[in-house]
Every structure is written in C-alpha cells, then in structure tokens.
C-alpha cells in the first residue's frame, strides 16, 4: 500500500482452496482508504472490439482513479479466458509508469500462474500454523469447545481456515462441548467439496478417473506423490476397453515432476476421494492392488527365473500398499470412524465381520477374508524389517482395526496406530485413535499400552500433572504382563514430575527397581542423584552413558545424553545427543527430534556455548511446533531466551520468555518457567540493572513456596549473588550461597566451583577478595567451562580492582573480559567491560564508541542524542527543538539502532566518551 504514494505496483496472491485468497482481497479493499477500490471482472467494459487490451484496462483504471491512488482487486484471475488474462498481464507490466494504481490478483494454487502474470511478485498463502489455527478456533467458539473435540477439529482441518470453520458449522453445541459424539466422518464429502469448490469441476471422464487413481495411490504411499507409471497402468485397468484411458492433458489439480504425480492441494486430493462414487473408488483401489501385484510378480520372475511367481509364493502381495488397496477395495456399508482424510467405506458389519484371531469370511468379492486381511495388515505394519514409514504403518494399523471385530484386537491395533503417529510426530492424530482404543474392551496389557501412549502424548503436549497420573496408571497395568514397558512408563512418569518441579513425586515414581537394563539403571541413578547420593548415582548412570558407544537406537542414545547431563558430563552429553539426532532422523522418528535437540541445546548452554545452544534450540523449536509438542517448544523458547540474555537483544529475550511462560503456566511446566524467569533476570543484570535482577531472582532462589525448579534454581544462584551485592542484600546472598556450596561440592556441575569462588569474592572483605578472584579464574582455566563464565569473573575482578584504584591490573582483567565476551557473542556484557575500560581512561577495542560513532548520525539525530544524554525526556527534547514528540521518538530509535546501544545509560556513556575524545588536544 505504501508503494502507491509514488507509483503503481502489482501483486499475485495464490494458495490452495480455503486458505483465504478471497478474504485477503476483501480485507485489502476494506483497509484501503487512500482512494477508490475497483473489483474487476471480465465484462463489456473491458471487451472493446477486437478483444480486451492493456490500454483499455489502463484507461479504465485511470478514469476510476482520478487524481489519487486506486486499488484494483481481481479475484480468481485463473478463471478468465486466455485473452483477458493476457490483457491483464500486459496492463500490469505498465503499472509503474501508469500512475498510483495498485493491482492485487488472486490465482488458485492448484493452477499454474499464467505466463502473462509471471513478471509480478507472488505471495503464496500457507496453511495456518498450529497457534494461529488454535486462535481462530477459540475466536469462532468463544473458547467453549471441549479439549478433545478441539484437538480433533484442529487435526482434521490441517491448518485450512475455511475447512476449520466449515467443520464447526457441522457441529451442534452439544457436540462441540463433547456432550454428544461427533459426526463420522468429521470432514464428510459435502464439507470437503464445499471448500474445494471449482477445483473439482472436471468434466472429462478420463481426467476424473486419473484424479481418483492418483488420490487413491497417494493414500497408500509414504509421501504426497506417487509413481506415474503405476497410475497409468492402474487407469488402464480401471478403464478397460476405453479408447482414451489417459486424458489428453494433465488435469489442473495435478503436477508431474520426474515421473511422479502429485496434487497441488492436499485438500483437493481429500475432496476427490470423498466425492467419488463408492463403487468407482473401490474399483480404483482394486486396479492399483492388481497393478502392484503384477509389478511385484514380474520383478520376482526376473530376479529368480526358475522360481515361482511372486504372486503365488507369497512375497508379492504382502507389502503394505498392496494390502491397503485390497482392504479399501472391499465393499462395506458404514463409515470409517477414524480416517482423518475422507469419507470412505468402513468396517464390515454383521456376519461379514471377522475377529482378531481370524476366521472365515462370507464376502465372496474380496481376495481375502476381512479378518485374515486385518491380521496380515497388522503383521506387516508391525514388521521391523519393513521400510514403511511411521505414517504408513499407522494407516495400516487403523485399517486393520476397522476390519477387526469389537474386542481387544481392535483396541490393540488402534493403540499401535497411535504409537506410530506419535513416532511420526503427530500427537493430534494419535489422540482420536487412543479414544477409539479406550472405547473397546481390552486386557491390562493392551490397556496399559493405550495409557502409556496417552501419557507420552500429554507429556509433550499437555498438562504434565495429567501426564504423570496417566503414566503411573500405565506402569501399574503393565507391571505384570510387560515389566519392561512398565519401567518405561515409570521413567516417563518421573519425567513428567520433573517437568512439573515436583521432587517428591519424582522420587516416589523412580522407585528402587534394579533389573539392570538401561531404563532401570537410569531410574536408580536418577533417584540417587536427587537424594544427594552422587556416589550411588555414578555407577548406574555411568552405565547408561556408556551404552551410547554400543547402541545406535535413538531412544537409547537420548537416555545416554540425559544421564550424562545429570552427571555433569557435558561433552559426553553433546556426543550422545549428536548421535541421537542423527539416529532419529535416519529412522524417521520425528517425535524424538525436538527432544534430542532440547538436550543438545541444554548441554551447549551448560557448557557456555550460547551460539551453539541457540542454533539447536531454534531448530528444536521449529520441529517441536511441527510435531505439535508445545511443552517441548516451551523449553526451547526458554533456552532461546537464556541464549539471547547475554546479547544486546532485550526485546528478543522478552518475546521468547512470553511464549515460554504462556505454555508453562497452562501446562504446569516448572522447569521451563524457571529457565525463562532466569533469562529475564540475567538480561537485567547484563544491562546494568542489578536491583531488578535481584528482585526477580530472589523469587527463584530464596527458600519459600515460590522457589524455582529443584534442578534449576541452583544454577541461577551466581547471578543472584552478583545482583544482590550491589543491591545491598548481603544476608540473602549468604543464605543461598550455603546451598550453592553443597551443590558445588556435589560435583555434578563442572562450573560450580569457579562460580562459588567468584561469589565468595563478591561477599569477602578486601583482604580476601583478591585471592578468591584469582582462585576463581584459575578454576575456570582448569575446568574449561566456556568463555562466558570466565569473562564474567574477569569483569567483576576488573571492577573490583578499579574501585581499589589499581588501574593497570584492572586494565588487564577488563581487557581479557572484553575479549572473552566478544568471542562468545555476549554483546551486552561486552559493553559493560568497555564502560569500565573507559572509566579508567583505556581505549577499548572493537566497536567505535568515541566521536567517530556520533558522526554516523544526522545533525538532527546528534542534537537529540546530546539532549537525551544530558537527561532530557523525549517531551523536553521536542519542546526544545520545536518538533513533535513522535518525531523525537522516531529519531531516537534510529540513534539507538545506528550506535548499537540499548538504553539511555549506554547512550549517555557514548556521548560522554565522544565529548572527552574531542576535547583532547
């Protein structure tokens, strides 16, 4: 919009149906107040003799604009005929010289942008991110949706706002509040077709069959595309004897790249399947199964010329895609209760429904009895030798459950599907499957697995108190039939209590199990550590750490990293974490990646490597959001806040802290909340605000009901002591220092000894402080605990020396501190070191902070900077210079950005240094 102040411009907006192209154009039209808005459609006014022309369009627009700017909105330009689109594109090319005319064009995402519009910049609308979708849902429902219903609606909509609102319109108030069951399928054919709209308007029968076959093939594929040759052969089988089995052109919703076919829009793919005739849809699946069978048999014959054909010896027809297509080719009434994508044929009912253990079928049309096919699907999905993805395994388990009679077999298969969805990083898909499993009668072993999967879901994306109780129930149910899984549930319950900051619950959950496997040793060692018995924790936790050298499973490596962090072996934690990350990615364990990155980021933070911690936490945050793990995302936000607290970025710290605390308070995440509050306090301390830092940290570290997380608050003690001394809170500092001395003696934190010596130096009389500071620096050198902590000790020692009027020694220490801060990117702390060096008349290296810095400002900015440095408020500066307060605000922001300062205090120091420099002869 701002561009239209001087010249014209154009923009193309594209996206799949339902993402809001039309709504965006309407919003732009309502928001445009600088002039008239023209909604353009092809009609007589732009169709003179000989067809439309660019000059005709421009003339029409100029007339509408008059002397001011004009906004032209063109919705669904892909629906225009070729001549009209060509004229539109040619007119758009002339916009920069045509006056202040803006052109906003929307084009459906499933159609390629016309070459005539290719010169215009393109904005592609993406599905809503989870927080955005949640906000839209809460706004539309006033927050009254039942949590389980809310989660299912969000999962079903997949970030499509129009589909989300359409799903809401289907529900009654009782259904929305969870008082009545939801309609099944939730996204039925009518709902999907209503959102897809014209994207389904394909009239050519061959094209419709191609679309249906691609959609059916992708349904049983590991990705979003499928092999074009497979589809071509399946279409030939689907349309036998037809003169044109393959359409002359590729339908607009499809794209073909390197022999692979895919839909431009997942929503359109879902709608194609949902709106297809059921018999024809089953026929497409049958054609795909036959094609895959024939292809596998042919491949087997070529590989073993003298052997039996693959279709006969059993090796061809057992792959998951073949089995899935066969299952979907079965005729069956009813509706699928849990398939999130379409309204399709559901489980057979009545006499044709088999049991979990198998049994004869009365269905003469399918190649296998439903119960037998269900068993084969489940067995193949559970096969560890299969290269199928977690997503495809989940699909197979769901279909096996739908083909299984009521009872423990169905519950077990729904649970197995949920477990695979969790491994794929989709807790939103796991929740309805777990609800379906709970609706079936099941023995303790199956029910325990269901509760374990549910508890793990809540641990990463729900109230951790609820997760703790659910996991305890799982451990109790599994104790007899599956003791190894019971131990896993108990350790996960301890993780939930740890996240909540409930030390007593954590200890009670860990128990005294000594079976000798990795999980039990982790529990025993963790319990001993929390009880303060390091000597009894070292051996079992050490065994867990050592397993990283012999076991490449991501879960084992993740436990090794966690155990190493408990022992303070930061380098071992980093190595195990790096291997766990590689293993999780290799195995496609999307759910583990955010957690591994959490341990890696925390290990880097403990080692003082803030830049590396930030890199891991940024990636961890992205993957956690994608995987729907809000609790893990909150921990990454807190780590990012801690990393940013040493830099010159208070706004970044505040943003991460706000995000972390929003989830931490809702879900009871004491660990994330403590880390976030510590980050805020450390940012205050770095910017020279010890009183604020001491107030905030006091709540975290001093005894009382609001003390921070039991495993984190001690780490913040050195910051509190550093803030409390200048604030005059000596007794408080001594109180927490006694606890910190026990922590340092415990030996689980390699930096604690040096930090303890530094804190004692801050509180010691002058005759002892010197030796304590030197001792602290020597300990930093011995432990190699990172640049940042050593530089902080050197800074405090330099300040102490300067106050004792020992400038030469102070210069050496402050110079070393400055170099350390600059090496680790601690900008705000580096500025403290520079200020101390300026105070003793030493010229600091690095950023230009003298008169040269002020020369980068405009004359008006220099005047404002000097008045502010003298203590004037923005209003006083405005009155002095006869400008508005807004003008002063604007220029002052520019001053701060140009000089790289974050506060008026820093600006005053810089101006003072500049004046002193220019006054020298």
Automatic annotation (TrEMBL):
Gene Ontology MF term list: DNA binding
The keyword DNA-binding appears for this protein: yes
Pfam family, one: GerE
GO BP: any one term: regulation of DNA-templated transcription
Region (Disordered): 334-370
Domain HTH luxR-type stretches: 850-915
Protein name: Helix-turn-helix transcriptional regulator
Organism: Streptomyces fumanus
Lineage, broadest ranks: Bacteria, Bacillati, Actinomycetota, Actinomycetes, Kitasatosporales
């Amino acid at each position: 919009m701002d561009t239209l102040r001087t010249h014209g411009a154009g923009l193309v907006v594209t996206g799949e149906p339902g993402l809001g192209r039309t709504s965006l154009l309407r919003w732009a039209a309502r928001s445009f107040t600088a002039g008239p808005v023209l909604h353009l459609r092809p009609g007589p006014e732009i169709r003179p003799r000989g067809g439309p022309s660019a000059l005709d369009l421009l003339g029409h627009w100029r007339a509408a604009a008059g002397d001011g700017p004009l906004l032209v909105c063109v919705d669904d330009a892909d629906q225009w005929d070729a001549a009209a689109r060509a004229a539109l594109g040619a007119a758009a090319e002339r916009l920069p010289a045509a006056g202040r005319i803006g052109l906003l064009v929307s084009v459906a995402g499933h159609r390629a942008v016309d070459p005539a519009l290719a010169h215009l910049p393109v904005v592609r609308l993406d599905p809503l991110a989870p927080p955005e979708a949640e906000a839209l849902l809460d706004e539309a429902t006033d927050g009254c949706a039942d949590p389980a219903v809310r989660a299912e609606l969000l999962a079903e909509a997949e970030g499509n706002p129009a589909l989300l609102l359409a799903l809401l319109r289907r529900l009654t108030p009782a259904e929305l509040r969870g008082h009545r069951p939801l309609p099944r399928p939730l996204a039925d054919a009518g709902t999907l077709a209503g959102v897809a709209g014209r994207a389904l308007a394909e009239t050519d029968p061959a094209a419709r069959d191609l679309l249906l076959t691609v959609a059916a093939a992708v349904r049983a594929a590991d990705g979003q595309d499928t092999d074009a040759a497979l589809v071509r052969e399946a279409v030939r089988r689907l349309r036998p004897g037809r003169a044109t089995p393959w359409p002359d052109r590729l339908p607009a919703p499809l794209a073909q790249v390197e022999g692979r076919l895919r839909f431009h829009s997942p929503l359109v793919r879902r709608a194609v399947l949902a709106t297809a005739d059921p018999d024809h849809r089953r026929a497409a699946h049958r054609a795909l199964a036959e094609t895959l069978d024939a292809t596998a048999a042919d491949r087997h014959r070529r590989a073993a010329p003298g052997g039996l054909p693959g279709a006969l010896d059993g090796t061809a027809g057992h792959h998951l895609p073949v089995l899935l297509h066969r299952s979907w080719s079965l005729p069956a009434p009813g509706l699928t209760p849990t398939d999130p994508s379409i309204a399709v044929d559901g489980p057979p009912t009545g006499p044709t429904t088999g049991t979990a253990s198998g049994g004869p079928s009365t269905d003469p049309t399918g190649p296998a009895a439903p119960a037998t096919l269900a068993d084969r699907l489940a067995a193949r999905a559970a096969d560890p030798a299969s290269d199928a993805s977690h997503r495809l395994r989940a699909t197979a388990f769901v279909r096996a459950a739908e083909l299984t009679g009521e009872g423990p077999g169905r519950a077990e298969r729904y649970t197995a599907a949920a477990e695979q969805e969790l491994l794929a990083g989709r807790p939103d898909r796991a929740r309805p499957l777990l609800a379906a499993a709970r609706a079936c009668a099941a023995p303790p072993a199956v029910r325990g697995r269901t509760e374990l999967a549910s508890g793990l879901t809540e641990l990463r994306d729900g109230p951790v108190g609820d997760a703790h109780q659910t996991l305890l129930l799982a451990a109790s149910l599994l104790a007899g039939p599956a003791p190894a899984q019971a131990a896993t549930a108990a350790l996960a319950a301890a993780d939930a209590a740890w996240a909540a900051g409930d030390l007593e619950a954590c200890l009670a959950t860990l128990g005294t199990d000594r079976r000798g496997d990795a999980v039990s040793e982790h529990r025993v060692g963790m319990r001993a550590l929390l009880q303060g018995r390091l000597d009894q924790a070292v051996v079992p936790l050490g065994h867990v750490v050592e397993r990283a050298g012999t076991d490449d499973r991501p879960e084992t490596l993740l436990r090794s990293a966690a155990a190493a962090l408990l022992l303070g072996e930061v380098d071992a934690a980093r190595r195990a974490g790096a291997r766990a990350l590689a293993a999780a990615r290799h195995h496609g364990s999307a759910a583990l990646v955010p957690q591994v990155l959490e341990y890696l980021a925390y290990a880097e933070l403990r080692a003082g490597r803030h830049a590396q911690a930030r890199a891991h936490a940024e990636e961890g945050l992205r993957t956690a959001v994608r995987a729907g793990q809000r609790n893990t995302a909150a921990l990454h936000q807190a780590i990012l806040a801690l990393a940013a607290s040493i830099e010159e970025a208070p706004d970044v710290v505040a943003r991460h802290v706000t995000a972390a605390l929003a989830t931490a308070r809702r879900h009871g995440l004491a660990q994330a909340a403590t880390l976030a509050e510590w980050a805020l306090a450390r940012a205050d301390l770095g910017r020279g605000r010890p009183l604020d830092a001491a107030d905030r940290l006091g709540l975290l570290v001093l005894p009382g009901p609001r003390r921070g997380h039991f495993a984190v608050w001690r780490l913040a003690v050195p910051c509190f002591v550093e803030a409390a001394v200048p604030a005059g809170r000596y007794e408080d500092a001594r109180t927490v220092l006694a606890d910190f001395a026990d922590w340092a003696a415990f030996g689980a934190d390699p930096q604690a000894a040096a930090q303890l010596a530094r804190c004692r130096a801050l509180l010691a009389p002058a005759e002892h402080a010197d030796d304590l500071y030197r001792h602290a620096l020597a300990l930093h050198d011995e432990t190699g605990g990172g640049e940042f902590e050593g530089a902080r000790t050197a800074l405090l020692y330099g300040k102490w020396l300067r106050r004792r009027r020992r400038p030469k020694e102070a210069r050496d220490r402050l110079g070393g501190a400055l170099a350390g801060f600059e090496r680790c990117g601690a900008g705000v702390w580096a500025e403290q070191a520079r200020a101390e060096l300026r105070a003793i008349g030493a010229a600091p290296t690095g950023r230009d902070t003298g008169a040269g810095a002020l020369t980068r400002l405009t004359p008006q900015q220099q005047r404002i900077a000097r008045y502010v440095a003298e203590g004037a408020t923005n209003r006083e500066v405005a009155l002095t210079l006869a400008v508005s307060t807004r003008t002063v605000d604007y220029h002052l922001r520019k001053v701060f950005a140009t000089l790289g300062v974050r506060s008026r205090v820093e600006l005053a120091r810089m101006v003072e240094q500049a004046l002193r420099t220019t006054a020298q002869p």
